[in-house]
Amino acid sequence: MTSSVNLLGGGGPAHRDPDISPAGTTGTAPLPEDVVARNAELVEEWADTLYDESAQNIMEWAREHAPHPLVMTMSMENTVLAELSARHFPGLDAIFLDTGYHFPETVDVADQVERRYPDNRLTRVRSILTTEEQDDTYGVNLYRNNPTACCRMRKVEPMAAGLSPYTGMIDGLRRDDGPSRAEAPALSLHRTGRLKISPMITWTLEETDAYIAEHDLIVHPLTTQGYPSIGCAPCTLPVAEGQDPRAGRWAGSGKTECGLHT
User: What metabolic or biological pathway is this protein involved in (predicted)?
Assistant: First the structure.
């Protein structure tokens, strides 16, 4: 007769070590060597030039110079990337990372994006396990007990798998988002050899809001209720005026990044 061990501690049922991901695809398919080499050359040649360029110019650079296909990664905190694509890079695919823990408002924004931008094929990337299966396998509230493991399994690994068809990604990263992003480049080489392109990198929150208002974009309702940065519902709190926009993410845990941009 074998005995089970609770790898998370305590006297409850045995659960898997959260450092061990569930079986399934958790990585990104490798790119051909010539594409990786070309991407590295582009970063070497253009990163300094694009560092403080406008979003319009960065999007048009990506359309003209980057190996295709590229994909937008959208958190649905705002829909600026979809609008930039419609104006400067029509038909660009999009990925929405559906963690299973989103605010209902975030999922509703994704639904609206599909209707407003039908030329941008939106793929909803999901984790190997549902939230209920994760509770059964790793214990309830993993997002609280081990937020790094939860982010890895519900964000980093699904996104890694979702990027496999693409040679690069276009994201909504901004230096204004917080100290950990203050010197982020507009163009860099992702650890998989793919291009990482951030057209909004120089934008402030105020400039982002102004663009949304100017073009009558879809507005995530929580951004008007004290949530300048929106992640999973259990791990996101509103912030006080003047605070770091990401101060409400993983509040009280010391965690500042999910791992997608590190």
Answer: Sulfur metabolism; hydrogen sulfide biosynthesis; sulfite from sulfate
- Tell me whether strands 122-126 and 168-170 are parallel, antiparallel or unpaired: unpaired
3 state SS of 95: strand
Helices (H), the chain: 33-50, 55-65, 80-88, 104-116, 131-138, 142-145, 147-151, 157-162, 205-214
Is 124 part of any known ligand binding site? Answer: no
Q: What is the pTM of this model?
A: 0.86
Distance CA(230)–CA(239), nearest Å, equals 11
Domains and CATH numbers, the chain: 33-220 (3.40.50.620)
Q: Provide the 10 A C-beta neighbour count for residue 108.
A: 15
Question: Which amino acid appears at position 66 of this protein?
Answer: A
Average pLDDT of 172-201? 94
Instruction: Give CA–CA dist 63/66, Å, rounded.
Output: 6
Contact (Cβ atoms closer than 8 angstroms) between residue 144 and residue 234: yes
Three-state secondary structure call for residue 191: coil
Q: Is the CB of residue 161 less than 8 Å from the CB of residue 27? A: yes
What CA–CA distance (Å, rounded) separates 74 from 234? 20
Q: Is 111 annotated in some ligand binding site? A: no
33-61 pLDDT, tens per residue? 999 999 999 999 999 999 999 999 999 99
For the annotated catalytic residues, the residue numbers are 258
Phi and psi of 192, rounded to 5°? -90, 0
Sheet with 93-98, strands from edge to edge, namely: 122-126, 93-98, 70-74, 168-170, 195-197, 187-189
The answer to the question of whether 235 is labelled as a binding residue is: yes
